[in-house]
Amino acid sequence: MSSDLVIVYHRQPYEEVEVDGRIEYRENSSPNGIVPTLKSFFGRVDHGAWIAWKLADDPADPGFEKRVEMDDAHGQYTVSRLPLTADQVREFYHVTSKEAFWPILHAFKERYNYDPVDWQNFREVNHAFAEAAAAEAALGAVVWVHDYNLWLVPGYLRQMRPDLRIAFYHHTPFPSADIFNVLPWRREIVQSLLAADIVGFHIPRYAANFVSVAQSLFDVDVDTRQPVPEHLISEGTALTERSMVERLVHDGRQVTVSVAPVGVDVDFIRDRAQAPETAELAERIGEELGEARLILSVGRTDYTKGGVEQLESFERVLEANPDLHGKVRLMHVSVSANRGMAVYAEVQNEIEQTAGRINGRFGSLDWQPVSLMSNAVPFDQLVAYYQKADVAWITPLADGMNLVCKEFVAARTDGKGVLVLSEFAGAAVELHAAVIVNPFSHKSMDQAILQALSMDEEEQRARMALLQDAVRGSCIAEWGNAHRRLFDSIPRETSLRLTA
Ligand code: GDG
């Protein structure tokens, strides 16, 4: 019980590498993402802790290292590892989280699969996370819980340790009540979230949906409401809201509903973009492209990311515009994070089939319209693609935020390039200057890519300058600062009473 800040995140904050039969813990090789930002919080506290799970064949194995002490550039912190068996991981993560929660969060009711869920297992795993956090947290500490697969942690934690300041952050969208309430466990989940002091989201719409879900299930009063700041209003787009609830009251307790859009590390990406190694990679991509223009699409292999719909749009555009043949290439980077799951294998198959059909229909010996990449490319290579792309085509059907579009903007040190962005990505409420597209409309999809390909340099520069201001304004450091302020705003009365 010694940490002032406990981060509960299902992944470990480092990579394990075996060196001469011994395990060494190293910084994640992927420098992007939120893990480094989360760890940077440890630099500001005396001692921090991180709770994650770790696959264990036999959780009772005495050789299993339950706690690892880290002392790195981010400070001193303990990583407490929950041993989970392969069965537990499958039930808790692949079945309950990915087959039942994920489709509902992204409003794909028809993909929701409730039958195989072992709810008791989900409770047990969440309870174990809560116990581990309670064991590490000092009196009155902040415990920051991340994402929907840990939905029940705040509730258990509040019972175990009423003194703690508990924050929960959603990285995904949060759907409206008529979709969320499909979940039979809705009351248990929302009751747990209402036990937190702060429930956080990327954008005002998800926060508004959460408030309406909470009000549909419990007696919850809105305490304070405020206008949505100008920079989060994108006129006429699907996810825009004009006012947002700041605080709820439930059972005599206040719950802050926070909005803080995740961003990227702009300086780091610009630095990589300007590195000589990246310039070399970019030059090679340029040579390979020759006169052809590059459309770039990057996203995990997931039905929410709209990869198939995008390829179908490309096919229609090539069919209707023979003048583009031989002049454009689509580079589609689609990497699967859950290779073993049937649903993702299906999406991957469909992507491969559609791309194959397009190449078969239109390709020739010296022009291949679509290139697919299914293995992760190193980050510098990705930055080189961002730099050489004439158009970044990011059209998810639903996406909590989407960091790829922000990375593309940050990488454009030349001030050019066009971003085509789905209005159903959270980022669309911030990136007003993108070409905004409705991925559910063929007409909108096809027109947007044609508009992007024909945009003159002056308009590209004007839009890119606005996009860069927006991406810098909500960079990852800002997200961190917003949370520091939020944590400081939680009253410490409970813990003070306990010490008195
Ligand atoms: C969830 C929410 C929310 C992708 N391909 C490669 C590669 N990537 C990196 C990108 C980017 C990251 O993966 C993807 O981030 P996203 O935000 O786009 O999407 P999710 O993985 O779905 O993340 C999302 C996010 O959480 C944060 O809250 O924005 O809405 O779904 O950083 O660069 N990186 C490398 N090679 C690849 O081939 N190196």
From TrEMBL:
InterPro entries: Gluc_glyc_Psyn, Glyco_trans_20. GO terms for biological process: glucosylglycerol biosynthetic process; trehalose biosynthetic process. One of its GO terms (molecular function) is alpha,alpha-trehalose-phosphate synthase (UDP-forming) activity. It comes from the Bacteria. It holds the Pfam family Glyco_transf_20. Belongs to the glycosyltransferase 20 family. PANTHER family: BCDNA.GH08860, TREHALOSE-6-PHOSPHATE SYNTHASE. This is Glucosylglycerol-phosphate synthase.
